Recover the amino acids of this structure.
């Protein structure tokens, strides 16, 4: 009965991800860009929901919308806002960018049309325990490496902003 | 053809259920805010030896209704140089996650919007979206006070999110589930989680006070000193929506505390009449709402550096120690309740006893730096 809903939501979310992504690149107002990026991240979280990966969707919103967008807005608000074109620096590299996009996009498209997922979606939030188990057993080493990297970044940031003792 | 609940076609029921749920939530939020504003005025009045509102209606009961009508009837003012789309969107960005949070609150064993396996994570996620709305409100107002206020609030909210989540982690470790229903079911008797995990509760409670901008952490909207922060340019119903969200969030964090540490819907007579759970849940939730009002009437406002220092130097280290110790104990003991309780109560004692000592040391250091002559007996413990 509600079979039409899932493609409909997918269409909406895909428009959100791609449209907001294009707008982030094309627009000139940097706050609007940051917000549209949040929209793009949120639509991505919706995609994860459609795939039955609630935990990942929630982390996507928590980290990308709730933290990274805020950090970017902080960066924007603490820097000087002039009328200079922000895009100019990047727009000189259009041919290079197009080439890179092709290189990245072709394998993605190839994968998208050949990939078949044999796994049936789990019940509500059912991805939590498998996710945690694989994170702390199979992928424990990459997890630890990532956490050490983040810790190093944290210490580095503190050292950078630390005042010299008078 | 399948028949859904109440003999309604399941297709219609699915839509109807959504409409009823959203309507009920908005009703709860609006009435909760009215009730809380009235309670706040009356309770603060009692604590400060005043009468509070008493002209409009019996005991001033209609005063908040009158205020609501005034707010709705106010002229819609928007300064010319504000950033229109963001200025209009900001209240909605703050309000809608708060309404969505009500979905997973377990009012009683059979009155839960959705029993998500990741319910607690869902609440945390939606709580973190408020910051975005506040930063945007500050930015879009095109006003230096608002911008600084928005950034100050964002700094506060992001910082206190950390101890808030760390406080939840200990309970999740102990119960072994993120589902609000499972957490409630794990504490049916008198031995509720607050007896075993008081440090986690204290961490969460303090962080939640800061997250919902309540005193003594209400710097985001300090009307008297900081020109109301990000709210400077807002008036009328848009301003009211920010405050509706604040009262809604107070209700939600109170409900989380009632569920995680005080047994949620459990209470006398619930096994016989499950609907009684709604009453117990509401009473427990409003207990915390009243606690927040009590704190508001008692404590003065902190300064922003004291607020940040308390979060990063006191709350987060203690919460991390608590998580470390709790995880070890849960792995080491078959029945971890007694050791967990001992460690948690010791940490609470360390916080309560240690705070005056560190304050005294800081005060001495400050005085020696500013060149004031200090005699040890002169140093009073600042609260």
């Amino acid at each position: 009965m509600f079979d039409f809903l899932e493609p409909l939501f997918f269409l909406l979310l895909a428009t959100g991800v791609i449209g907001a992504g294009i707008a982030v690149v094309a627009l000139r107002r940097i706050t609007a860009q940051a917000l549209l990026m949040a929209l793009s991240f949120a639509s991505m979280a919706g995609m994860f929901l459609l795939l039955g990966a609630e935990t990942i969707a929630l982390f996507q919103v928590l980290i990308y919308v709730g933290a990274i967008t805020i950090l970017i807005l902080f960066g924007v608000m603490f820097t000087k806002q002039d009328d200079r074109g922000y895009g100019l620096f990047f727009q000189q590299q259009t041919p290079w960018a197009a080439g890179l996009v092709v290189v990245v996009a072709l394998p993605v498209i190839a994968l998208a049309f050949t990939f078949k997922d044999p796994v049936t979606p789990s019940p509500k939030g059912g991805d939590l325990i498998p996710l945690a188990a694989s994170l702390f057993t199979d992928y424990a080493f990459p997890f630890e490496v990532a956490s050490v990297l983040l810790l190093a970044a944290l210490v580095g940031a503190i050292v950078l902003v630390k005042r010299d003792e008078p | 053809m399948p028949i859904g609940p109440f003999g309604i076609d399941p297709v219609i029921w699915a839509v109807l259920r959504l409409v009823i749920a959203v309507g009920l939530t908005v009703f709860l939020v609006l009435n909760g805010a009215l009730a809380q504003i009235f309670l706040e005025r009356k309770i603060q009045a009692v604590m400060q030896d005043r009468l509070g509102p008493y002209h409009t209606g019996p005991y001033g009961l209609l005063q908040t209704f009158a205020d609501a009508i005034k707010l709705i009837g106010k002229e819609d003012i928007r300064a010319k140089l504000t950033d229109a789309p963001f200025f209009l969107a900001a209240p909605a960005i703050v309000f809608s996650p708060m309404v969505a949070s009500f979905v997973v609150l377990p009012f009683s064993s059979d009155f839960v919007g959705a029993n998500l396996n990741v319910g607690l994570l869902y609440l945390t996620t939606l709580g973190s979206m408020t910051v975005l709305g506040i930063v945007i409100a500050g930015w879009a107002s095109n006003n230096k006070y608002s911008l600084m206020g928005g950034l100050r609030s964002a700094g506060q909210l992001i910082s206190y999110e950390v101890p808030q989540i760390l406080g939840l982690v200990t309970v999740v470790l102990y119960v072994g589930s993120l589902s609000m229903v499972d957490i409630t079911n794990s504490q049916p008797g008198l031995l509720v989680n607050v007896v075993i995990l008081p440090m986690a509760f204290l961490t969460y409670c303090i962080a939640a006070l800061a997250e919902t901008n309540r005193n003594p952490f209400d710097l985001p909207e300090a009307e008297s000193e900081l020109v109301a922060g990000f709210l400077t340019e807002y008036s009328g119903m848009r301003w009211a929506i920010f405050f509706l969200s604040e009262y809604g969030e107070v209700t939600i964090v109170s409900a989380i505390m009632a569920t995680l540490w005080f047994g949620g819907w459990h209470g006398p007579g619930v096994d016989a009449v499950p609907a009684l759970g709604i009453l117990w849940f509401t009473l427990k939730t409003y207990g915390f709402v009243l606690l927040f009002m009590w704190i508001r009437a008692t404590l003065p406002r902190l300064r922003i550096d004291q607020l940040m220092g308390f979060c990063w130097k006191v709350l987060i280290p203690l919460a991390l120690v608590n998580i470390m110790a709790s995880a070890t104990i849960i792995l080491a003991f078959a029945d971890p309740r007694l050791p967990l309780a001992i460690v948690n109560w010791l940490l609470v004692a360390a916080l309560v006893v240690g705070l005056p000592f560190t304050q005294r040391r800081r005060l001495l250091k400050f005085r020696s730096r500013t060149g004031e002559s200090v005699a040890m007996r002169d140093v009073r413990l600042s609260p």
Residues 82-354 of chain B form one domain. The longest strand of chain B covers residues 106-108.
